[in-house]
């Protein structure tokens, strides 16, 4: 019997846990079953208590203290330990029915999604035929405020594309926290960021402002300690153009918009998730309760 799940990921600050909480609330209001898995060993507060928490297996704080590791090294150690104890996941998930949507809340360290092979191994374990046989998709969140700084936007988009290539599962890219940019950018301008392309750098407001102020310098002439000077140089602009060109050449990334304060926005994202994992195809028609049946007849 197949399971159905979504792995929520993205850089720190993208609002992953907020989205998970909004998604669970929405599912509950619509009488759907959710199983919440927290795989962030550093997470401490939750709006909805996880049904399965990696901290019951291993915590980042303990690893850092006992192994004398930093936050990133400790996180990787936690995931390596999880991979050695995958029955922790199997025991909790194998009894779930097809009615459940498994929501997996991931850490915010992007190394996990770009070049470390731990997550692909975990995804393969979850999706392979056997005890779990999970139909899984990834939801990669990027904070919408990144569109204000186009260099950050393309850097974040490159990370999203890296995750798509690394994980090889159905993938949704989402601009989260849309409520924060409503008054900062016009709707017509925002549409340009849904599908990234190099023309976004041609009229970069930050670049135009630096040109008007006459602060553009060559990187080789800049003070290495002056971050603003290095990031305003022509070399930095060529780097951004190269990154944007690479993203455009792959033509893999496009974004959905998410505002967790808007119920319709959460529902729209859920519909995309359901389509990716073909959730509704396996569901049996739900029998109406007595009161619901009377309302339908009326």
UniProtKB/TrEMBL annotation:
Q: Does the keyword Iron apply?
A: no
UniProt KW Hydrolase keyword: yes
Xref: Pfam families: ATP_bind_1
> Sorted alphabetically, which InterPro entries does this protein's record hold?
Gpn, Gpn3, P-loop_NTPase
Recall the GO molecular function terms of this protein's record: GTP binding; GTPase activity
Highest rank taxon of the organism: Eukaryota
* Record keywords, A-Z: GTP-binding, Hydrolase, Nucleotide-binding
Q: How does it assemble?
A: Binds to RNA polymerase II (RNAPII).
Q: What does this protein do?
A: Small GTPase required for proper nuclear import of RNA polymerase II and III (RNAPII and RNAPIII). May act at an RNAP assembly step prior to nuclear import.
Family statement drawn from the similarity comment of this UniProt entry:
Belongs to the GPN-loop GTPase family.
Question: Which PANTHER family does the record cross-reference, listed alphabetically?
Answer: GPN-LOOP GTPASE 3 (PTHR21231:SF7), XPA-BINDING PROTEIN 1-RELATED (PTHR21231)
Protein name (record) = GPN-loop GTPase 3
């Amino acid at each position: 019997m197949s399971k159905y799940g979504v792995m929520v990921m993205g850089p720190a600050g993208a609002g992953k846990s907020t989205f998970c909480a909004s998604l669970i609330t929405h599912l509950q209001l619509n009488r759907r079953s959710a199983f919440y898995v927290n795989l962030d060993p550093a997470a401490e507060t939750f709006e909805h208590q996880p049904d399965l928490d990696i901290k019951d297996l291993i915590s980042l704080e303990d690893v850092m203290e006992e192994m004398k590791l930093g936050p990133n090294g400790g996180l990787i150690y936690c995931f390596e330990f999880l991979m050695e104890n995958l029955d922790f996941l199997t025991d909790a998930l194998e009894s779930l029915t097809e009615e459940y949507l498994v929501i997996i809340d991931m850490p915010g360290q992007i190394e996990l999604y770009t070049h470390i092979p731990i997550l692909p191994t975990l995804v393969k374990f979850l999706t392979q035929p056997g005890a779990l046989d999970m139909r899984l998709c990834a939801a990669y969140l990027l904070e919408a405020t990144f569109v204000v700084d186009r260099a950050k936007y393309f850097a974040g988009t490159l990370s999203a594309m890296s995750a798509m290539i690394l994980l090889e599962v159905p993938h949704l890219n989402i601009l989260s926290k849309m409520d924060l940019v409503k008054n900062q950018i016009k709707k017509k301008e925002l549409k340009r960021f849904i599908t990234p392309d190099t023309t976004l750098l041609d009229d970069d407001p930050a670049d135009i402002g630096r040109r008007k102020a006459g602060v553009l310098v060559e990187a080789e002439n800049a003070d290495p300690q002056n971050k603003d000077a290095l990031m305003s140089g022509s070399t930095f602009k060529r780097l951004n153009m190269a990154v944007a060109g690479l993203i455009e050449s792959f033509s893999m990334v496009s974004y959905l918009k998410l505002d967790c304060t808007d119920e319709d926005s959460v529902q729209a994202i859920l519909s995309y998730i359901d389509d990716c994992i073909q959730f509704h195809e396996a569901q049996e028609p739900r029998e109406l309760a007595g009161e619901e049946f009377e309302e339908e007849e009326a």
